Amino acid sequence: MFVHLLRTKLLRAEVTGARLDYEGSLALDSELMSLVGMLPYERILVGNLANGQRFETYAIPAPAGSREVCLNGATAHLGKPGDLLVVMSFAEVESGKAAGWRPRTATLGDRNRRVVRIDSPETPAELLSTFQR
Question: Does 58 participate in catalysis according to the annotation?
Answer without folding.
Answer: yes
